[in-house]
Every structure is written in structure tokens, then in C-alpha cells.
Amino acid sequence: MIDALAISHLCVGYGHVGVLEDVSLSVRQGAITALLGSNGAGKTTLLKAVSGLLKPAGGSITFLGDDITAAHPNRIVRAGLTQVPEGRGLFRQQSVRANLDLGLYGCGLSKREERERLDQVLGLFPVLAERINSVAGVLSGGQQQMLAIGQALMSSPKLLMLDEPSLGLAPVIVTQVMDTLVRLRSEGTTILLVEQMVERALEIADYAYVLQSGRVMGHGTPGELAGGELIRAAYLGSATARTHEHAGGAAAAIS
């Protein structure tokens, strides 16, 4: 399978403080790839670097064969890579329709194409059609998350990155969000998913990477990782973790 995103030996920090060190991973086209790890592991920093919001100190980022390591965020979005940030990033005083329209910024579509995009998103999230004129700030947490995903989908991204989409949501809404991601994958959207709910992420992911303290500890299929020492070490800091070993026994840590 072709890689939509390839990250090689990436180093990123804030000022003189390093956060990511020598991180390498890939996201296969048409797949859901999960990025797992505890708070502070560097997951959000990685997404910001891919989105162009942080400039790497070293390494490279390639998207669909093009080097985007130093690209401006606008160019990255136009290339087909969109992020749904943690906290959703909505304009809470604007209507649902206005927030969706913001997702079209820079796309250069005709009015007919814009309407088609809107219809596609509203078809995916019928509740947004019912609340199209409502102010985003009065929506429930789950509806706001759907709106944030819908806003990102308005640009018809080739790769959709999501940062903690289940944060603060009731279990039934988390299920709806995860089901939506599975549907998007079936329709051809490639997804990079940062998620604290490990079990839910592994239920839908095709492949996963585990970050700890800014490094990739290991990677594998959900079956290889689920319930393994690698996951426990990443979230509990187990001293017995074997960071050189793939959860399925094959080789794992990237250095």
C-alpha cells in the first residue's frame, strides 16, 4: 500500500526545549493510522509539525510524494492535508453554516461545487443540517465535534488528522465519531488519529504507533499491540518495557 504521509527522523521543539526526537513513521493511503501515547508524549506537537504550525529542527515530512517540511500551512491545506485540532477550534459565536463555510477557505470552488461539498457533509452529519442556523456555541459537545470534523471535510482532504476527537464526549457519541471515521475510510479518506482512548482507537485502526517522551517506542497492527507491554509502558511508564521489541515479536523501535 502506498504511503500518503512519510515522516523521517523528525526533531521538533519549542525554543530550546526538544519535544520530538528522531521520530519516523508512515501513514498508508486509505488507512486509519493511530498515534498513541500518554499526555506529554509529543502527539500534538507531531500534528502541528505536519500541519506547518511548527517548523522542525531536523528531519523531513513528505505528503503524497512532495516534501512539505518547510511548507506554509495554507499550502499544506491546499495539497489536501487537514487537521481537526484538540478542542475543536470552532468559532463559537458563528453559525453552523458559517463554520462549515470556513472550511472552504482557499479551495477556489465554484458555487455549485461548494453546495455539493456542503450537501456531502450534511449527509454525513444530519444533525448539523437540523441545526444549520444555530450558533456553534450552543451545540452539545458531540455536535461540536461533528461540526469540527465537518468543517475539515469541506476541503475534501486526502489526509485527515484528528487530535483527541473523543475528548469530553459521552461513550455513545464517541461510538458515533468512531463509526464516522470508519465510514470516511471506506470512502477513501486517509486518517491519522491521535487518541487517548486506546481500546477505541485500536478497534478501528489499521496500524498504530506508540509515542513516549518524544520517541517512537514501537508500532504494529492493533492485534499485535492490544494488551501488550508496549501499551502499558507508554501509559504507565513500566520499567520493564522492552522498547527495542515489536509488540508482535517482529522488531519495533525506531531510532
Describe the structure.
By secondary structure, this protein is of the alpha/beta class. The protein has a domain of 157 residues: Rossmann fold (3-Layer(aba) Sandwich). Helix content is 35%, strand content 25%. The protein is built from 10 helices and 10 strands. A hairpin with a 2-residue loop joins β4 and β5. α3 packs parallel to α6. It is globular. The C terminus is likely disordered.
Summarize the structure.
With 255 residues, the chain is of the alpha/beta class. Helix content is 35%, strand content 25%. α3 runs parallel beside α6 (141-153).
Low-confidence blocks of residues: 238-255
* CA-based shape: globular
Radius of gyration: 18 Å
Proportion of helical residues: 25-40%
Cα(first) to Cα(last) distance is: 23 Å
- Return the structural class: alpha/beta
